[in-house]
């Protein structure tokens, strides 16, 4: 259910239930979590690209998985939560390429990308309120940080269907490109990141995530601590050396 392909240090992951618009099941969540865990520990993976197979990115939870019974959402969300925590804590850059609809939890997953691209024909909708549910999969955390509290309330309460261009205007995606060029551009971006100082990327991601809960004094202290760690990396030494020698740096991610 999760296709994997490697290209030049980039691990390409494709949600692969195209006949169901890549709707999420418990089994897909378990597989995605395992893949992310392995990618985290694999030094050969220097960046990741997440997309969907077929004409959708992800239509959210597959409600048919629950049959006629009443699901235990609290228990089920534990499977989502560990995937979200794996995405948020990923110490490697993550590019998300939204090739079609991203709805509900599928939209949540897309928003956890460090850099997010969308095809012109892609669309986004929170969808939770349409079936009487609150946002989950980290959407209540990430959405207001991207668009602000007032706009997040509007999106979550009204659940509009946003075009790719509307999503870009709100800051939900960084770039909108023609569908036939989406994977090409997303892969080029992931390859560029894979050649960069990936340890520094990890520290930067950690800093940005942590500072939301810190005071200015605490944020400044954390900057100093993480800068000290970055300053001890091989990549910092290489970056300074390349600057002095007036050549492009050759980063190794350490």
From TrEMBL:
<dbReference type="GO" id="GO:0016853">
    <property type="term" value="F:isomerase activity"/>
</dbReference>
<dbReference type="InterPro" id="IPR001753">
    <property type="entry name" value="Enoyl-CoA_hydra/iso"/>
</dbReference>
<dbReference type="InterPro" id="IPR014748">
    <property type="entry name" value="Enoyl-CoA_hydra_C"/>
</dbReference>
<protein>
    <submittedName>
        <fullName>2-(1,2-epoxy-1,2-dihydrophenyl)acetyl-CoA isomerase</fullName>
    </submittedName>
</protein>
<keyword id="KW-0413">Isomerase</keyword>
<dbReference type="InterPro" id="IPR029045">
    <property type="entry name" value="ClpP/crotonase-like_dom_sf"/>
</dbReference>
<dbReference type="Pfam" id="PF00378">
    <property type="entry name" value="ECH_1"/>
</dbReference>
<comment type="similarity">
    <text>Belongs to the enoyl-CoA hydratase/isomerase family.</text>
</comment>
